[in-house]
Amino acid sequence: MFPNKKESLVLTLSLLFVQIAIGIYLGSIGITWEAGNPVIYIFLSIVSTFLIVWFSLNRMDLKFVQLFHANTSSVLSVLVITALPLAMIAIGGQIILSNFFNLYFSFFPNETEVTKGITALAHNGTLGVVSICIVAPIVEEIVFRGIMLRGLLSSYSTAQAIFFSSILFSLYHFNIDQLFHTFLFGIFFGWLYTKTYSLWPSIIAHMLFNIIAFILGISVIELEGVNYFPNDEIVYPFAMLQVLSIGSLLVGFYILSSLFNKN
Question: Which residues contact residue 50 at a Cβ distance below 8 angstroms, ignoring those fewer than 6 apart?
Fold first, then answer.
């Protein structure tokens, strides 16, 4: 079944190429923008995703709606039972992950241009938040879990399919600052997909991770030591917050695993 590993790599490169090509075309007709323009970001994301999905669905002989839910339970029931543990994992995971960012930025304090663009996007009003917390999770899950992982699962073991799709998901972000955590997120989102046969839990989880990162990293809520972008001083989260975050992460995984084993 389409796509295999080679075809998934081509799809990832094509997605990037289409976005770059559209950006160049817009520039050639006089439409210019600064990094972090949410209108352009949303436009590029939706158009490029539409083209990739349209091509892929023809190869997979599927309808668009079939990408989202193949679980015998209703979408609502799946989301209801997974919402709480997903929130616990997102909150605990993002705070624990801030340790990595603190360590990473202590060695590499300068942001990449892509990270600067994300920062600018996050600070660009309501549409910036919508692009990061809603549009990006939906389009990325459709492509990397709904199409790529689905196709890979038909030709490879579950572990291989999740691993390879997560590598492509990480590389797609084209940002060394995000390379590690996007790979981990890809593993988690892929695991959710294979356990639920539904795209909705991974979409909701993706949204939650981005929302928590936005809240903690864009100074909406300031927690000492929780750092997602370079600061002049590196301070790690205090011990109790670390313990609570680890607890939230583990309990969330325990609840999810219990639910999946039961069902």
Answer: none
- Residue range 43-66, pLDDT digits in tens: 999 999 999 999 999 999 999 999
Closest CA to 226 of 101, 87, 88: 101
pTM (2 d.p.): 0.92
3-state secondary structure of 69: strand
CA-atom Rg of the chain in angstroms: 19
The structure tokens listed for 209 are 């991770």
Q: How far apart are CA 202 and CA 192, in angstroms?
A: 6
CA distance 143 to 57: 11
Beta bridge partners of 71: none
Residue 108's φ and ψ, nearest 5 degrees, are -130, 80
- What is the average pLDDT value for the chain, to the nearest integer? 88
Q: Which of 58, 50, 45, 3 is nearest to 173 (CA)?
A: 45
Backbone angles phi, psi at 69, to 5 degrees: -150, 115
Cβ(174)–Cβ(17) below 8 Å? no
198: Cα separation from own chain's centroid: 16
The b-or-e profile of 60-78 (16+ CB within 10 A means b, else e) is bebeeeebebebeeeeeeb
